[in-house]
Amino acid sequence: ASSSLKPSTTVSDTYSEAIELADIDWDNLGFGLQPTDYMYFMKCDQGGTFTKGELKRFGNIELNPSAGVLNYGQGLFEGLKAYRKEDGNILLFRPEENALRMKMGAERMCMPSPSVEQFVEAVKDTVLANKRWIPPQGKGSLYIRPLLMGSGAVLGLAPAPEYTFLIYVSPVGNYFKEGLAPINLIVESELHRATPGGTGGVKTIGNYAAVLKAQSAAKAKGYSDVLYLDCVHKRYLEEVSSCNIFVVKGNVISTPSIKGTILPGITRKSIIDVARSQGFEVEERLVSVDELVEADEVFCTGTAVVVSPVGSVTYHGKKVSYGDGIGAVSQQLYTVLTRLQMGLAEDNMNWTVEL
Ligand code: COI
């Protein structure tokens, strides 16, 4: 069921006034799909140019059974968030960064991608059309999920002849069921998320299917998620299924460097800058699994998880714990970043885009 809407400017004019909130339980948002009003839809033909993007009623989409994305995994996604400020205005966090990352990923996956301007405009239109689904300040955020997929039919292995760019949104709260409490990770040394020369460094959908087996096994044993090691030495930290990892020792914060097998997180990059602005020394380098034993604190970063403190990491049956509550450094970085994202602190980084 999809009915197109008027051009985007009309949509935002219409929706910016009547700010009623959707009738849902805003106090108990987790990270699950809450269907909203509109999604954004834009196609591109063999010429490689995306045109005629439009908002449609949120709903199922139709795909040829032979679509490239369904058969050969030719797909990418992005994730970003919109926050409602105290004055009711809306803040997006670094949307151009997602646009650029999608372009980079599209190149790796042999797909055309929307321009940065098209991407950012589409995000803005989608958020404004779904304004009543942005949580009140302090209750969560609107998670924005852009998708790029080979929607054209292929049978022999080849890039699809047609592509679809789509954005849907959902109000969300905390990602992990632990809420803001520290999560417990288990190091996985047999199954790997990414390989050198592979696609670990781009946000292709297959990277996320590949971690489900280890993640499910970890959850069945009571862990929150899995921490991956590099597949060559089985020794250096890579990332968690859905987020990047940081290790704190004294005034030094270390995180695995981006070298093709690690997703270049936008929260990762932002936290590096925030940490330096707070006087920490940040090192991007190979981080050995042995350093987990000596660390004062460990935390994860991601759009969905924000900054998640790690309470313990288990490796080869040995559990290393990092104290009872949230570590001081994790707390400090979380607070500085989220105050900026929510418009509670001045954005001296120039990262937010106000709608
Ligand atoms: C995000 O943090 O936005 C992601 O894309 C991770 C996803 C597994 C929820």
Automatic annotation (TrEMBL):
Family statement drawn from the similarity comment of this UniProt entry: Belongs to the class-IV pyridoxal-phosphate-dependent aminotransferase family.
Matches recorded under Pfam families: Aminotran_4 (PF01063)
Organism annotation: Trifolium subterraneum
Entry keywords, A to Z: Amino-acid biosynthesis, Aminotransferase, Branched-chain amino acid biosynthesis, Pyridoxal phosphate, Transferase
GO cellular component: chloroplast
SUPFAM superfamilies found in the cross-reference section: D-aminoacid aminotransferase-like PLP-dependent enzymes (SSF56752)
N6-(pyridoxal phosphate)lysine modification, residue list: 203
Coiled coil ranges: none
GO molecular function: L-isoleucine-2-oxoglutarate transaminase activity; L-leucine-2-oxoglutarate transaminase activity; L-valine-2-oxoglutarate transaminase activity
Upper taxonomic lineage: Eukaryota, Viridiplantae, Streptophyta, Embryophyta, Tracheophyta
Family matches, as PANTHER family: AMINO ACID AMINOTRANSFERASE (PTHR42825), BRANCHED-CHAIN-AMINO-ACID AMINOTRANSFERASE 3, CHLOROPLASTIC-RELATED (PTHR42825:SF2)
Family annotation (InterPro entries): Aminotrans_IV, Aminotrans_IV_CS, Aminotransferase-like, B_amino_transII, BCAT-like_C, BCAT-like_N, BCAT_family
Domain of life, source organism: Eukaryota
Protein name listed in UniProt: Branched-chain-amino-acid aminotransferase
Record EC number: 2.6.1.42
Keyword Transit peptide among UniProt keywords: no
Top-tier EC class: transferase
Cofactor: pyridoxal 5'-phosphate
Reactions the enzyme catalyzes: L-leucine + 2-oxoglutarate = 4-methyl-2-oxopentanoate + L-glutamate; L-valine + 2-oxoglutarate = 3-methyl-2-oxobutanoate + L-glutamate; L-isoleucine + 2-oxoglutarate = (S)-3-methyl-2-oxopentanoate + L-glutamate
GO aspect biological process, one term: amino acid biosynthetic process
Pathway annotation from the record: Amino-acid biosynthesis; L-isoleucine biosynthesis; L-isoleucine from 2-oxobutanoate: step 4/4; Amino-acid biosynthesis; L-leucine biosynthesis; L-leucine from 3-methyl-2-oxobutanoate: step 4/4; Amino-acid biosynthesis; L-valine biosynthesis; L-valine from pyruvate: step 4/4
